[in-house]
Amino acid sequence: MALSREQIAMRVAQEFKDGSYxxxxxxxxxxxxxxxxxxxxxxxxxxxxxLGMGRYxxxxxxxxxxxxxxxxxVTASTGASIFSSAESFAxxxxxxxxxxxxxxxxxxxxxxxxxxxxxxxxxxGMGGAMDLVAGAKNIIVTMTHADxxxxxxxxEHCKLPLTGVxxxxxxxxxxxxxxxxxxxxxxxxxxxxxxxxxxREKTAGNLIVEGDIPEMRV
Amino acid sequence: MALSREQIAMRVAQEFKDGSYxxxxxxxxxxxxxxxxxxxxxxxxxxxxxLGMGRYxxxxxxxxxxxxxxxxxVTASTGASIFSSAESFAxxxxxxxxxxxxxxxxxxxxxxxxxxxxxxxxxxGMGGAMDLVAGAKNIIVTMTHADxxxxxxxxEHCKLPLTGVxxxxxxxxxxxxxxxxxxxxxxxxxxxxxxxxxxREKTAGNLIVEGDIPEMRV
Amino acid sequence: xxxxxKVVSSYEEAMAGxxxxxxxxxxxxxLCGIPEGLIAQIKKMGVSGLxxxxxxxxxxxxGLGILLEDKQIRKMVASxxxxxxxxxxxxxxxELEVELTPQGTLAEKMRAGGAGIPAFFTATGYGTPxxxxxxxxxxxxxxxxxxxxxxxxxxxxxxYKADRYGNCIYRHTAQNFNPxxxxxxxxxxxxxxxxxxxxxxxxxxxxxPGIYVDRVIQGTFEKRIERKVTRxx
Amino acid sequence: xxxxxKVVSSYEEAMAGxxxxxxxxxxxxxLCGIPEGLIAQIKKMGVSGLxxxxxxxxxxxxGLGILLEDKQIRKMVASxxxxxxxxxxxxxxxELEVELTPQGTLAEKMRAGGAGIPAFFTATGYGTPxxxxxxxxxxxxxxxxxxxxxxxxxxxxxxYKADRYGNCIYRHTAQNFNPxxxxxxxxxxxxxxxxxxxxxxxxxxxxxPGIYVDRVIQGTFEKRIERKVTRxx
Lengths: 218, 218, 233, 233
What we know:
The complex is a heterotetramer, with 2 copies of chain A and 2 copies of chain C. Chain A has helices at residues 5-13, 28-31, 85-93, 129-135, 196-201; strands at 20-24, 42-46, 50-53, 76-82, 99-103, 106-108, 113-114, 138-143, 154-155, 170-173, 176-181, 184-190, 207-208. By secondary structure, chain A is an alpha/beta fold. Chain A has a 10-stranded mixed sheet with strand order 4-3-2-1-5-8-10-11-12-13, sandwiched between helices. The termini of chain A are close together. Chain C has 6 helices and 11 strands. In chain C, the strands form 2 sheets. In chain C, strands 1, 2, 3, 4, 8, 9, 10 and 11 form an 8-stranded mixed sheet that branches. In chain C, strands 5-7-6 form a 3-stranded antiparallel sheet. The N and C termini of chain C lie far apart (52 Å). Chains B and D meet through helix 3 and helix 4 of B and helix 4, helix 5 and helix 6 of D.
């Protein structure tokens, strides 16, 4: 059965290692923070200038000067640092953030991603997404495998304007976990109860299935 | 009579305005700090990362962590700021320092300066001089008008390897204060008792003398 | 040290010299860390044809959004402008031009502008619409695009505290774009919550050295919160 | 938060992985703010063929100067190397290569290296021997040269305090090149006067966020003064 948003987030969180610095985009990626194993610690980077983002504040902790990149009120965890936007993106662009997790409209088998602009619709801006995909060491895209009309979002070539090129290595969808390399999507894991055939059918790009594909543990 | 080192420094200090941020090179430039008028305040920038350099420390104020760009122990004045070398040169390169005063081997009528390298002699390095001459709003060169063999240091074209090009606007020598513009040295002031003829004789580059040339007040 | 006293006593003085068609660089991220009083003064002055460089353009009725009401902004350079219905309307009408710039590139463009770096290379935006028309060059086998720096006629900045010499510190994530904006204005104006005496901020804790700052004004701030989220008790 | 505990207990651990022919970026200005114990460890390890990037190369017998004694440095990238007779001798003998780099360009090259900026333009050095062979380009009518960034296999840094997560602050002008060096190493090692617990340094006062730091070691420092000057009483 296809994964829920929470299950996708759960599977994302399994990628993190103890001591990982992680930037989580808005939506499903943000949920991943809730599923980090108790055995490890990760530190959340928020690109508006906060490393060590903590929990949402209690009512009396709310502070207009303490927000995250989603413009939500947050707290800083113990050992956090706060800095300018230039420093924040020096970290990101310079490859110091271990994981970036973000959503996308489309990903293709070259590792290109389209996530910010649909021609004909009003463009609101890319925010920090282009810097994040250009800079992070490991980028995980979370999205549904196909759109609501059943059209695959895993393509041979992205059709929408790109956010970044040759940058995505891992995709976690509601159906599967895939790795991108050598100009193909390599199927690594299936969502519990989802068949390889279903994944194949919903993957428009070149899908490589080698050996038995295990089910995810979520 | 030719100015002493102290008198050159005195004349330099007259250029500063109330509220000027000033970077002083080693030697005569450093002396200028002693002759700033009581009516005005200047703030000294030391390129190792100190804005608001204070006096030398008393014996019990000496601190290995508080030095100037000449590697001398110093103090910070009230209202000083301390920052990284990148920030320091952002200030310098970005044109935020009002005056840079430095010595030179040669200056030419295009405003080029040679101050760091004599071919055949061991090269020790340019330190921050190239950044300072590329960045400051006003650059004052202090030097003797001629070398000890009587050869002019104010040339049509510098012969030594350059520190910077088209950057010097004012020169204060032991004989005169000159402004560089329109590809010429314009004589502005004479040292007390020094004749225009002597200055003309010791200036190899194109010297322009317009009207009466007043004596400096030092 | 009268020559270093940057404190002005009115918003008129703070923004004196601002004219039509000038470029303003503004600190702030969303509504966090914005110079509220300086923005209000720009509205009051009625100058128009402005180019405004800021990560966002406020919201309807608050922050930089209020400069849209009388169509004072001709061009906006920002990374995200999705919080603002009036912005959308003027954009679709062709009354407003927008240059969308990746957030990190925008921060670096401001920093570079203040630091005398006219251009730099970044991988951000290569192969995307942002890279179109920009020079591409490879370094160590990876393609990068050249981005030019930004400076402004004015920079408007919100700090937590400043001393009379203009040395500033920022509070929490209200720092954001403010330090870079402060370096990139021909005239940099800082609106603060508290003016302190020189020496009160330890030298190594100063975020923005006073050399970048031309004017300091004591402000009052509403500090509106864009998305208040709290944890369940 | 064991995964973020960067503290190591020996200099061997601190410099583990350093090999012949690697590039080391070192903080410090003259003898001020130098990682004395890390330099001593490099000497002890006996690695050679090093490229060292640092504003200066210490003095005879102290600071980076001790790495000259056993000819461990093959190439020095610095802005000023005039304090060191052994340096001169090895340079004249052809045993040592030097790449003189303007001080501000050097600082920016390190910062750019850490920040993912492969190259930038600066007016510094244009028309001088430093600009020879470098690309020249005009911006707003002024010529600039292109300078490429620097990164190192190791960065060695001296901080005043660091917490276990690697968050650092520097003391007075011992800051100098240290923050940029810290960003530019594949492995960044910080030697400190005091290790504190996370949270002791207020978040907005941290000069170097721990994300740049791989290892932290408690050091002991001689802090030799190069030019002690005092005022007459």
